[in-house]
Write a sequence for this structure.
């Protein structure tokens, strides 16, 4: 039990919470970078390799397209279906190979990215599916390559809903990042656990909740504003995609 | 006026296309052949579902035919590899019914899309896109987004995008079907002037006879995936029994018979200016009634059809009919068996 009336209490609280916040932002930030780098192409591959998609025949073979589509779909489902606590622990050997240790914030990035990548890939898939097929045809009629169709048409036109999907993804990364506190991952989750739970400090608990809440709120409002600025009448409507995302994440 | 260069720009040979397979298979096109001459405006007309859209999408291989050949500007497209096909597509611009503009790009950005694809430098792209936007009358809208434009303006952007890469062929898939009549007219005028000033060959698909009437030099009628007839409009008009001619100049149903002769006269070229009917009445002392008439200006020339009723059976009017034919007019007598009788009388 910590004594709130002790002279060291408030400076210590500030230190601990600031440190936890920094760790959380670090984990979430780096995990987010990997999420975009891996989730975006995976989402494009998911849509593209479907029947009639622009990557229908990778390497000139429809069979390759079907195999890649099933494989990616399976990985994405696996990543989303396994509860995070289990995934986190199960990935410890892999984390050790990649990072060299399974303890600390850097190590926590691996399971965080592992759970966020499939999540974001689905968001990207949903957003790109909403792009009007006529736009792809128009680009094809101008002689565009598959890569040009992806980079000049599909991704830019689906950008607004993808940004919203990304903000949903960040929120869930923050959510999961609290859990890595359990396996010595650090961050605000660890603060809540060590001070709020194990030492019964209500003040620590409330502070952590307020900080996390503030971070999520800021992120969401920035993302929404950004998405609104990207959205143009005629491009993919964010609202339509948001509804789909809502059904998608209520698993 | 268009100049007939003699050669074919687009030559579609015995093309068939089926969608789906097994019981769900739909045959969109059966053994379709078309010749589009260099520099002309060629209209393909038909009901929705007749296969028109499939046909135009075959020309730049957005759809691949099951069999047959597609030659554009002397190059067989069906045997090209992916890279060669992309290069061939850049010689053809395409305009769509629903415009298919990128909502996230400005008007200028949309026009530059094709130029980016070909790897043109940003400075050249800007110059070329402004030039072409001026041409379609949207020089002041370069920075606007498609969502801020009217339907007609959007289609102008679509046309500008199609023209930016200096294509030889413009493919138009129901470009005016989503537009009101006034806007349709202005877009058709734009297409006509592009054809005239830039010498572009235009293949357009439409379900509106008015579109064919107002700007096409040649036309094809397509029905259930087959070409029923095709050719220069001027010669279609003077072809006996031409469905297109009948649709271009609708005279309605032939009235049920009263023992009189009903004839349809098709005028084309110079004959439209002559007082054919009053001459007929005077020369043969006939009481001619006009049942219907449709006169249009096609390709700068007067053409049309008139339905007349002459007293008495066709056999008694054989001389008058022969006289009309000798003036170079196309005369069709209503009633199938009667047509046979009359043609025997003709020398």
């Amino acid at each position: 039990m910590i004594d709130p009336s002790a002279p060291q209490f408030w400076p210590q609280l500030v230190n601990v919470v600031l440190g936890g916040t920094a760790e959380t932002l670090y984990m979430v930030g780096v995990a987010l970078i990997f999420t975009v780098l891996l989730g975006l192409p995976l989402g494009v591959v998911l849509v593209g390799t479907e029947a009639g998609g622009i990557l229908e025949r990778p390497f000139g073979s429809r069979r390759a397209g079907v195999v890649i589509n099933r494989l990616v779909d399976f990985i994405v489902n696996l990543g989303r279906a396994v509860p995070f606590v289990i995934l986190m622990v199960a990935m410890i050997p892999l984390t050790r190979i990649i990072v060299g240790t399974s303890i600390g914030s850097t190590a926590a990035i691996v399971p965080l990215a592992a759970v966020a990548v499939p999540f974001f890939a689905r968001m990207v898939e949903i957003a790109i599916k909403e792009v009007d097929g006529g736009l792809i045809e128009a680009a094809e009629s101008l002689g565009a390559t598959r890569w040009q169709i992806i980079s000049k048409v599909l991704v830019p036109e689906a950008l607004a809903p993808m940004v919203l999907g990304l903000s949903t993804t960040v929120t869930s990364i923050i959510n999961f990042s609290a859990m890595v506190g359990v396996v010595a991952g650090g961050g605000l989750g660890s603060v809540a656990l060590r001070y709020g739970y194990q030492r019964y400090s209500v003040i620590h608990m409330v502070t952590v909740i307020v900080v996390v809440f503030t971070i999520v709120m800021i992120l969401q409002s920035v993302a929404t504003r950004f998405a609104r600025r990207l959205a143009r009448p005629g491009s993919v409507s964010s609202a339509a995609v948001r509804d789909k995302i809502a059904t998608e994440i209520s698993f | 006026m268009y100049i007939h260069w003699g050669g074919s720009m687009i030559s579609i040979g015995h093309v068939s296309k089926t969608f789906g397979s097994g019981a769900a298979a739909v045959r969109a096109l059966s053994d379709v052949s078309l010749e589009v001459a260099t520099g002309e405006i060629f209209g393909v007309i038909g009901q929705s579902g007749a296969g028109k859209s499939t046909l135009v999408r075959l020309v730049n291989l957005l759809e691949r035919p099951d069999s047959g050949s597609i030659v554009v500007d002397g190059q067989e497209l069906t045997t090209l590899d992916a890279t060669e096909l992309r290069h061939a597509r850049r010689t053809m611009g395409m305009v769509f019914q629903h415009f298919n503009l990128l909502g996230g790009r400005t008007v200028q950005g949309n026009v530059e899309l094709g130029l980016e694809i070909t790897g043109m430098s940003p400075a050249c792209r800007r110059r070329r896109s402004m030039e072409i936007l001026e041409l379609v009358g949207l020089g002041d809208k370069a920075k606007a987004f498609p969502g801020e434009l009217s339907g007609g303006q959007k289609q102008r952007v679509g046309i500008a995008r199609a023209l930016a890469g200096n294509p030889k062929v413009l493919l138009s898939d129901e470009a005016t079907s989503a537009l009101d009549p006034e806007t349709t007219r202005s877009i058709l005028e734009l297409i006509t002037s592009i054809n005239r000033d830039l010498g572009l060959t235009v293949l357009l698909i439409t379900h509106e006879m008015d579109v064919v009437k107002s700007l096409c030099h040649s036309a094809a009628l397509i029905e259930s995936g087959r070409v029923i007839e095709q050719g220069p409009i001027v010669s279609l008009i003077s072809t006996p029994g031409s469905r297109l001619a009948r649709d271009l100049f609708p005279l309605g149903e032939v009235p049920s018979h009263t023992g009189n002769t009903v004839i349809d006269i098709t005028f084309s070229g110079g004959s439209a200016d002559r007082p054919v009917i009053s001459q007929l009445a005077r020369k043969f002392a006939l009481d001619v009634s006009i049942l219907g008439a449709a006169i249009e200006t096609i390709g700068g020339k007067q053409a049309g059809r008139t339905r007349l009723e002459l007293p008495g059976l066709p056999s008694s009017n054989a001389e008058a009919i022969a006289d009309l034919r000798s003036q170079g007019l196309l005369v069709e007598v209503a009633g199938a068996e009667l047509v046979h009788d009359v043609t025997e009388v003709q020398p």
